[in-house]
Write a structure and sequence with these properties.
This protein is an alpha+beta fold. The chain has helices at residues 14-25, 47-62, 107-122, 149-154, 160-165, 174-180, 207-211, 249-266, 305-326, 345-357, 372-376, 390-393, 404-422; strands spanning 29-32, 37-40, 66-69, 75-79, 89-93, 131-135, 196-202, 215-221, 223-232, 236-237, 274-276, 280-283, 289-290, 293-302, 329-338, 341-342, 362-367, 381-387. The protein has 2 domains: 4-221 and 341-422, Aminopeptidase (3-Layer(aba) Sandwich), CATH 3.40.630.10; 223-338, 2-Layer Sandwich (Alpha-Beta Plaits), CATH 3.30.70. It binds zinc ion (ZN).
Length: 425
């Protein structure tokens, strides 16, 4: 067995990887009206997700992997190592999608991992540690309301019973939907104890392209704060109620929207505060009635926990002032809060070295979105590899596109990093 520094150079088959991505994208394909393109809709645990899972599992088996399914439907495909008792290197992502997806989000991490294993097989390369490819249930959170569900259960953040009881809008429960598509597996959800976890993923943003970088070395996932804010005013006649006697909940919501934008802009450009009011519900929502109630959400994100907390405090005092100014009741509750998740510096360094050996320009980047990797980082050393996307990295949209070269670059870096980690004692 070669030493880490002397690993023989092999490369993935980029065309085969791209063909696999295209073939998986045909499962759950639909005609997207907004873009006039073919999109992908493989919402978690639907019939389409079941078909996509069976296609990928078939590919795993043909590549000689041993496939196991756990009780939350996570799929693990194992390639034996020279020392089977050592903890495996785990790498993968997800194949469920939002309802308006492209072909790359999550799938690149899973099919890139498959391509790594195919390449090792063809070149008769045996690693010291076992390799395990994983794909995880309901990463998107679109159907059952909790993102990274499968990896959160596997790493112990969410109890299995709680995950089973989650329901979609039609009232269907996770456990029943798992059974229906044939992926309610027998394996213990805590069975895999990895030596390290690596995930290759599209960036889903414009930064790498704009900096002319070919590979992103992901340093961590930014902190996220979600709130739901309720304004209670007084519904009243639009014609007979003088302006100074109104308690207009809609006006207060509008002021909040403007303030969130102002807060974000005052934090500077680039990797500063991101602020979004993405949902607004007015009641009674009529042309001739002053808004009596307004419910809206605030999504704040920052790479610094301290500065995110600072933004939350400024928002709190703004909301208290708003109540006095507009004569409306203001209440809010925190609906989600995750701290900044830093990735392991040794694995980041391995990603940077691999890119360097392959002659690819790499840049450090903070992930703006959540990923399975942040869950696994609680159990083992973890990092991510980003590849850029066209059209400013648009994602969760059928226009999502990374080129064959961008995808192959990501898979080649993944191959190098996984080989290096798999030789570690
Ligand atoms: Zn994803």
């Amino acid at each position: 067995m070669a030493k880490t520094a002397e690993l023989s150079r092999v490369c993935v088959d980029g065309r085969r990887l791209y063909r696999s991505l295209a073939e998986l994208a045909r499962v759950g394909a639909y005609r997207d009206e907004a873009t006039a393109l073919r999109g992908v809709n493989r919402l978690a645990l639907t019939e389409a997700d079941g078909r996509g899972r069976r296609l990928v599992v078939g590919w795993f088996r043909r590549a000689g992997l041993h496939v196991a399914v756990d009780r939350i439907g996570n799929v693990y495909a194992r390639r034996e190592g020279a020392e089977p008792a050592l903890a495996p290197v785990l790498f993968g992502s997800h194949i469920d999608s939002v309802p308006t997806a492209g072909a790359f989000d999550g799938c690149l991490g899973v099919l890139g991992a498959l391509e790594v294993v195919r390449t090792l097989g063809e070149n008769r390369i045996r690693t010291r540690r076992p390799l395990v490819i994983g794909f995880f249930t309901e990463e998107e959170g679109c159907r059952f309301g909790t993102d990274m569900l499968g990896s959160a259960v596997a790493t112990g953040r969410i109890p299995l019973a709680k995950a089973y009881a989650l329901r979609d809008r039609a009232g269907l429960a996770v456990v029943d939907e798992l059974r229906k598509i044939g992926f309610l597996g027998p394996r213990d959800v805590r069975a895999v104890r990895p030596h390290a976890y690596v995930e290759c993923h599209i960036e889903q943003g414009p930064i790498l392209r704009r900096r002319g970088a070919e590979i992103g070395v992901v340093s961590g996932v930014q902190a996220i704060s979600w709130r739901e804010v309720l304004f209670e005013g007084r519904a009243a006649h639009a014609g007979t109620t003088p302006m100074d006697l109104r308690a207009d909940a809609g006006l207060a919501a509008a002021r909040l929207m403007v303030e969130v934008r102002r807060l974000a802009e005052s934090d500077g450009r680039g990797a500063g505060l991101r602020g979004t009011v993405g949902s607004l519900r007015l009641e009674p929502n009529m042309v001739n009635v002053v808004g009596g109630r307004a419910t809206c959400t605030v999504d704040l994100r920052h790479p610094s926990d301290a500065r995110l907390a600072g933004a939350e405090r400024r928002l709190d005092s703004f909301l208290r002032r708003l109540g006095r100014q507009d004569g409306v009741g203001v209440t809010w509750r925190q609906t989600a809060r995750t701290p900044y998740v830093p990735f392991d510096e040794r694995v980041q360094a391995a990603v940077a070295r691999a890119a360097d050996r392959l002659g690819l320009r790499a840049e450090a980047i903070v992930s703006g979105a959540g990923h399975d990797a942040q869950e696994w980082s609680r159990l083992c050393k973890t990092a991510m590899i980003f590849v850029p996307g066209e059209y400013d990295g648009i994602s969760h949209n059928p226009r999502e596109l990374s080129t064959p070269k961008q995808c192959a670059d990501g898979a080649n870096v993944l191959l190098e990093v996984v080989r290096e980690l798999a030789e570690e004692p």
